[in-house]
Amino acid sequence: MLVANILVAVVALLHLWFMVLEMFFWTKPLGRKTFGLTEVFAQESRSLAANQGLYNGFLVAGLLWGMLLGAQGFPQKVFFLGCVIVAGIYGAATASKKILWVQALPGAVALAAVWLTHS
User: Fold this and answer.
1) Which of 14, 41, 68, 102 is most exposed, with minimal Cβ within 10 Å?
2) Which domain holds residue 35?
C-alpha cells in the first residue's frame, strides 16, 4: 500500500504543478516556454488556462482526500485517477501527445498499484 500511496502522491504533485503553471505562470516566461505559447496567445487564453488549472486543483484535492482516508479511500483514488487518465488521453488526442506520457501514464501506473494493493 505504501508504494501505491507514493504513486498517488506523485500524481497529485504533478497536478499541483500543472495547476500552478496554468493559474499563475501561464503568461510568464516559464509558462509560455512550457506550453510553447506566444505572449499574445498566452494573454488571450489566460482565463481559460486558469480555469483548466482550477480543475487540476480539484484532481489534487480528490487524490489527497483518498489518501487521507487510508484503505477506505480506495473508491476516491480510483475515481480521481480515472479522471486523470481520461483527461490525459483527451489532452493527448486534442492538444499534445506529450500529455499521454506526463499525465495519463503516471495516472495509469498509480491506478494499477492502487488496484493491486486493494484487499
Assistant:
1) 68
2) 2-117
